[in-house]
Amino acid sequence: MTDIVDDKVLQPQTFPRINDRAPRFTARTTQGVVSLSDYAGKWLILFSHPADFTPVCTSEFIDLEKASNKFKALNCELLGLSADSVYSHIAWLLNIEEKFGVKINFPIIEDLSLVIAEAYGMIDERSTSTSTVRSVFFINPEGIIKAHIHYPMSIGRSVEEIVRILTALVATEGGNEVTPAGWREGDDLVLAPPVTMRGARERLKKKKTEEDETDWYFTKTKLEGE
Length: 226
Prior knowledge:
Layout: E1 3-5, E2 8-10, E3 26-29, E4 32-35, E5 43-48, H1 55-66, H2 68-73, E6 76-82, H3 86-100, E7 108-110, H4 115-119, E8 134-139, E9 145-151, H5 159-171, E10 177-178, E11 189-191, H6 197-205, E12 212-215, E13 218-221
Parallel strand pairs: 5-6, 6-7
Antiparallel strand pairs: 1-2, 3-4, 5-8, 8-9, 10-11, 11-13, 12-13
């Protein structure tokens, strides 16, 4: 089956989705050869950028490095990727350090053949450029994709939002809580709603204790340990 959009026939594409296992890879980086398996037991932010020596990408890398302590506190590593060579990556990182006074401490993948970019759906097949779009994949310690974001090449990413999403993913790992709109660290979580009539009636019967019982489907709760 195919989809037709603006009189163009688009063939079905198979890219990883939320809760899919992240495609495995081994690649050369600015810090040596790395594999996805190297990050087992940790969260991983795998992100692509269109090209080295570009203004938007430079601003993103600086902001990501400045937020590195926030990622480490969440047991998370950063790993960049683009189609540029490792030599271009190295020259660019040295330039950032010289011109902006920021040392980038996370590795960047050299993906000259675009094998990884294509496996993760980081390439726009309708574009004449091999530049990767601004993709962000949140991979959990078991190697499962838990969220992803794709930005156009002209729009810089919000590192604050990336940290917020990662914090929310970590906070809801247990599966019994969810985060409401605009949730930030320190805010109340919301209990996942009952999915049966019995569950709804039991929730309604609960007396107000430490939880805010707004209604059976919307019940605030504190993050465990607070």
